Amino acid sequence: QVQLVESGGGSVQPGGSLRLSCAASGYTYRRYCMGWFRQAPGKEREGVAGIDSDGSISYADFVKGRFTISQDNAKNTLYLQMNSLKPEDTAMYYCAHSSLVYGLALREADFGYWGQGTQVTVSS
Prior knowledge:
The protein has 124 residues and is mainly β.
């Protein structure tokens, strides 16, 4: 089964940058979508960015122009480069896997495998 392990979270000042990584193993399907989601205390989990097996990418409006999603298939690793971080970006960030063709819509229910999360805190 698919296993996902996130890393790279931490504490930064507003305007700072972080790069999150997600090491993946156990892929079953050739076609997939990998996504980044986040959840702040008291709020629902929301989609951040996604990339599928064809290289197509989607972003939530609130991160467009600041975050970049990428993948290194040779290393089975997913990345999220986060620049110009804001306090409202503070959340637990999760990577997730979907075997659905339409996973780029970033619907939480379409993703069957989730990592344990990595905490991102943006404060002065």
